[in-house]
Structures are given as structure tokens and as C-alpha cells.
Write a structure and sequence with these properties.
homodimer; five-stranded mixed β-sheet; 9 helices; 26% strand; globular
Chain lengths: 288, 288
């Protein structure tokens, strides 16, 4: 399967404007609504050791993170469940409901089916705050590049650093942070599910500028060597932090918990420490 | 798997108010929004002989039909696709897009993944017309029971009556009809995907009345014996017609294409020709 070919087919049929964002956007009176859907299934998406409760949590989290990435407020979440064993239902639903509640929303329905392989599809609808959502498109040369927290912890957990396991198994969608950044007027935003460099490439695709980050500005992960920590931070998948760009003069209002890691440049490349960085990282699913 | 046990678990965790309708309902200013999701997969939901284009059409149709059943206007449809073979993508997307267009909406995004078994989950959002949606709950004794068209054609096709194949493979969601019925003030509504009697049982569950239908009032299917035609009409699955109840004095405004087939009664039973009818029919998936 060539991912680029599939993307081309999707673009042709549903239109390029729908293939670049974390959510579909549609207007309603003076407000905007966002909607998104994510498929996860056992073999590909749930690392060994995850409980069913965590699987439910994760399936809600991926969708809530997409809504967070638009700076929107999640209003409703639906869960379609293809169950391989009926005794898994309760824990999965409870995990999904707990994640929804932690983000100020709740499960409002779904669909239930039997399936050979456990398959979960969560779909969510969110409302814009004050008629504006933040898109992947919008960065301008000179903007600063920011992230909402340390990167690479989920990948570290996958590699056996068990102190980071909850970042892998129970990731926190950055819903509040996304809304605050939207309010602060960031110029573009997305969530980093497949690694920072991969996400910068996604940003590049949606904009007409380039991205230059400085690996020394990535927060280090305690208990892991500096070199490995930077590698995880640049290329590790599974993080739920937000990646955004912001005009320097707005930096004061974006809050203390965010980290500035680079700058938007004219040249159409992704630079890490001044050197072009290839797209690599997680590629197990693709937004269409 | 005991379906009733699963439903109980769902009701416990997401609340009984979310388990009885075709869509989740939430308010937005003076309007209501509806959202729904449906999982279909190859082994269970796509009869042999269906093309990939029809599989795509069907996956959009089930969700659009749920929105139609609330009397709402579909605004956006998302499709999560778990592909077993990448060369199936184009036809599936084109079929789904064609179905959306036929209902006045379009595909606005989704998710793409690889999967051992072709698995499609469509999710949709709709807007109420004038601040009102029609629910399963709302029928009163004395109301008439109506349907939007002949029943049993999909089941007849499954049984080999090839003249009815397009009702099985390319069902038409009754979106316009649903909106007209909502405007006419019907008291309750749902779509009949798992057979008429099964749907009447679903209605019974949501209301505090009973249902009495007269099998002679079901439109007969040309080319099929009367007995078989009635059997298909009562118990056959796969139809996309709407089932509704309406006060007799509003009958004049519901339009010519609808068929009155019975009456809402006080007694908490489903009667066919005066005899209690057991719940049977398709049960391959369950709304939660």
C-alpha cells in the first residue's frame, strides 16, 4: 500500500480542502462546528499490556485530541464498537466515558457489533469558541513554533521505560490548552500523534513556508540519556501534545506551560538543528 | 452474546436517555443537532454480489437513514475505512459520496486504516428543522401507524427475487420524507432497518403504549405470492423506509406516498392482525 496514492484518491473524491485538517469544519449561524472520526483496532493500535479500560480511554482520547487541535470545545462523542468478546464491553465503555468526562463532555451513543478483531471508531463533534477554529494552515515566516509539553514519553514507554507508561496508555487530550491557544490567537495548530518531525511535515504540506526546530529546546525526559531523549522527542509516536505556531508578539499570552522550540522559515523544508529532516515516525493511520 | 445483557451494560454507563434513539440529540442555540454512527463490516453486513461502490453507498445510507428518522437535515458525513485491500478505496469512496450527494450532503472527511476485514464506520451530523426533531418516544393511543413505502423488498432480494436487488444493494435513505413528516407533526418516528415487527418492538420499548398493525394494509410486492409478501413485509430486514405515528387529524398533511398500516393502542403489546407478535428479524447490530 502506497500511502501517497491512497491520499491522492481521497483528495480526488472528497476534495483537497477536507484532507488537510484534524477535523471537518462546517458553519452554523455565526459559529463553526468541527467533526472528526478515528478508527483503532487491536492488532495495530493497542500495545500489549493495555487494559480494556485503557483501550476505551484511548479510543475517546484520539478523537478529543483532534477537536482540541482545532481549539474547539468537544460537545458530543459517539463510539462504534466491534467486539471480539462481549465481556470486554463494560471496561471499554467505562474507559471511554472517563476520558470524555475528563474533557468536559460525555459519551452520547454509538453502535455495537461483533467483530473478529476488536475495532473501535470514535467520532466527535465540537463547537468553536467565538466563531474561530485554528487550522493547520495559517503559519507565516517569523512565527515561533511551540509545543504544549514534553515529547517522546509514549515512545519511551513503548521502548520499556515503564515510568512513562501512563503517557502511552492513558494519554490526556489537550482540550483546555487548545482552547487557550486558540483564544491567544495562535496562527496554526495540530496534534502530534505520529511524532514531531512527521507533524512538521504535515504542517509543511498545508502551508507555503518551512519549519526549523532546535532539538536542544525540546524538554529532556528524566531518566533517559540526552541523546535518546532527543530522538524520542523528534521521532517518537503516541504523544498527545499540540504543535502550534504563533506570532512572536503574542508569545506573552500563550502561557507558561508551552515550550518554544523553533521558528517558521521561508524555505520549504523541515530543519532540525539546521539540517533537513526526512519524514519518518508512526504511519499506521492516516487522516483523510 | 446475550444482546439484552449488552444493552444493560450500555444503559448503565452512558445513560438510558442515549440508548433509545436513532441519533444522539444535543442543543445548539435555538436549534437541535443530531449525531449518529454505524459500523458495517464485510462478513456480517455486505451480502455476496455487492460491488465496492454499493458497499460505499450502503455505509453512507445507514447513517443518513438514522438522521432522516429524526426528521433532521444531514449536514456532514465522515467515513472511517478499515481496508483489507487498497484497490477497493476508490469505488467505496465514490459510492459513499454518491449516496451523500443524493441526500443533499457530502463526505467531509474520515480516517483510513488497514484491516484484515473490510470495516466501514460512517458518522453523521444533522440539524433540526425549526428547532424540533422527531423521536421514537411520543406516540399516544389513538395515533395512526404509518410507513413511507412498501416493506420487504430487500429481504425478497436476499431470497433471490433479483428484481428487488437495488433495494438491498442501493437503499435510498428517506431524508426528504423524514423532514416532511417532521414538519407535518408526526408524534414519533424511526427507520425500519431490522424489519417492521422488530421496529415496533423498539417503539414499544421507548413508549408506554402498544402497536396494532393490519398485515392486509401492507403494500404487496409484485411478483411474489401474497403470503410471502406479507411475511417479508412484517419480518424482512434491510428496508430503509420510515415508521411513524401520527394523530388522525394530521393525516391529511402527511402526503400521498405514505401508507397507514395500524393504530397505537393502550395495551403494551405488538399485535399483527389482532394476535401478539414476537420480536424477530435481523439482529446483527444494535444501537447503543
Amino acid at each position: 500500500v502506497d500511502e501517497q496514492d491512497l491520499k491522492k484518491v481521497v483528495r480526488e473524491i472528497i476534495g483537497p480542502e477536507h484532507t488537510l485538517e484534524d477535523c471537518a469544519v462546517f458553519s452554523y449561524g455565526d459559529e463553526l462546528l468541527v467533526a472528526t472520526t478515528d478508527m483503532l483496532h487491536e492488532r495495530t493500535d493497542f500495545p500489549p499490556g493495555m487494559t480494556d479500560w485503557q483501550i476505551g480511554w484511548m479510543s475517546a482520547a484520539v478523537t478529543l485530541s483532534d477537536i482540541a487541535a482545532m481549539g474547539a470545545r468537544p460537545e458530543v462523542l459517539l463510539l462504534a464498537i466491534g467486539l471480539d468478546r462481549s465481556d470486554r464491553l463494560r471496561d471499554i465503555l467505562e474507559g471511554a466515558q472517563a476520558c470524555c468526562r475528563s474533557c468536559g463532555t460525555s459519551l452520547a451513543g454509538g453502535d455495537l457489533d461483533s467483530h473478529q478483531e476488536l475495532t473501535l471508531v470514535s467520532s466527535g463533534v465540537g463547537f468553536s469558541m467565538g466563531g474561530r477554529v485554528v487550522r493547520r494552515r495559517g503559519a507565516q515566516p517569523g512565527d515561533l513554533i511551540g509545543i504544549t509539553g514534553p515529547l517522546g514519553r509514549a515512545q519511551a514507554a513503548l521502548d520499556g521505560y515503564r515510568q512513562y507508561e501512563r503517557y502511552l496508555f492513558e494519554p490526556t487530550p489537550k482540550v483546555k490548552e487548545g482552547q487557550l491557544l486558540a483564544k491567544a490567537g495562535v496562527s496554526s495548530m495540530m496534534d502530534i500523534s505520529d511524532g514531531l518531525v512527521s507533524s512538521l511535515w504535515d504542517m509543511l504540506e498545508a502551508n507555503s513556508c518551512g519549519y526549523s526546530v532546535d532539538s536542544e529546546k525540546l524538554p529532556l525526559l528524566p531518566g533517559i540519556t540526552e541523546k535518546k531523549s532527543r530522538e524520542y522527542g523528534l521521532y517518537g509516536g503516541g504523544d498527545f501534545e499540540l504543535l502550534f505556531t504563533v506570532q512572536p508578539e503574542r508569545l506573552a499570552v500563550i502561557g507558561d506551560n508551552n515550550h518554544v522550540i523553533g521558528r517558521v522559515i521561508e524555505e520549504r523544508v523541515v530543519h532540525v538543528d539546521g539540517i533537513p529532516a526526512e519524514r519518518r515516525g508512526y504511519q499506521h493511520h492516516w487522516l483523510i
